[in-house]
Amino acid sequence: MSAGSATSASGALLAPGARIRAEVDEEAVRLLAERLYGISVQELTELPGYDDRNYRLTEDPNVKNPLILRHSPHGYVLKIMNSMDSKNLAVVEAQNELMNFLSRRSVTCPVPVRNVFGQLHSLETLGGQQHAVRLLEYVPGELLKDVPHSDALFYQLGEFVANLDNKLQNFTHSGLAGREHIWMLSQVPELEKFKYVIEDPDNLDLVEEVIEEFKYAVVPQLGELERGVIHGDINEQNVLVDRKPQPSNSEYRIAGIIDFGDVQESYYVFELAIAMTYLMLLTGQPRSAGVLLAGYTVTRRLPDHEYRLLKTLVSARLVQSLVLGAYTLKQDPANTYVTCSARAGGWQLLRRLRKSPPQPDGDDTDWRAVADEYLTRS
């Protein structure tokens, strides 16, 4: 659930206690939009974010702006990247190229807009720190978290994730080589440095158990996993949905994806595990991840040795989200975005995955069995 927490250009991971979010007020944002993009802002709204700041803005239609050749009918998002990610501009370039790459391949996602200098980003000094600033076209749509749940939608989400990764197989960028940040699943062992924020001893035991299991069950297997570029943060706040056309106007379908702040070279099974984790947090039901898996495996092969890692990977993402959420809240108590996992029953879900006794009507964490049953039924 991040929008940052990455490395510096030197490759150093986020250190406990570091403040990296831009300190900026709305007037400064208006001035940035005007100076860099020629936009006279009519409306300005700050959007939820983790370490980055994101502002939705619309242009004053009465002010002509020759700087932007193709005006976005739905407005724009001005993104002010955290100071740590901003030290690695090759990653920013990779994100921009990736959005354009996917947009050309019929994936609905934001695309970057060139500034007054003809560039897709600029480096600006704000509150004494340097931050990368860019403008994206705003993509309309409802978020997955805001629409009624259905198995059909979860199945589609699995198909969407698989199709996305099939396309990403053909994308490479030198800016992503060697990129590390604390929100990558491969960085779970680094959570040792942040676990001090977990005050409940039972929760801390769970965290330590999952970190240890990741170290002995996943790390030795990394060389055997299929690797490539992934989105890295497919969650209910980053997936766009829209209504199906008539006559089924009450049904929703997966429409697109936003927030490429965590794009990385990693493992495709990590992408799947992350999507499954956040879907379970949304629904509170482990079974929903099995329906997602059904859609995924119909579109993309999942080898047995990768499937066997899923429960550990999902547990690890939960721990990552809970620990880093608690840490960020300690740093920035006003940031309500970071409490999503804990508020959505993250600890209860983690206990259910780790400790739950067998159920008389079947194991809803046996995701392959759930997927098979769903495919047979539908």
From TrEMBL:
One of its GO terms (cellular component) is cytoplasm. Keywords: Cytoplasm, Kinase, Transferase. It is found in: Cytoplasm. It is an enzyme of class 2 (transferase). Its EC number is 2.7.1.81. It comes from the Eukaryota. It catalyses: (5R)-5-hydroxy-L-lysine + GTP = (5R)-5-phosphooxy-L-lysine + GDP + H(+). GO terms for molecular function: hydroxylysine kinase activity. Residues 48-297 form the Aminoglycoside phosphotransferase domain. Catalyzes the GTP-dependent phosphorylation of 5-hydroxy-L-lysine. Belongs to the aminoglycoside phosphotransferase family. This is Hydroxylysine kinase. It comes from Papilio xuthus (Asian swallowtail butterfly).
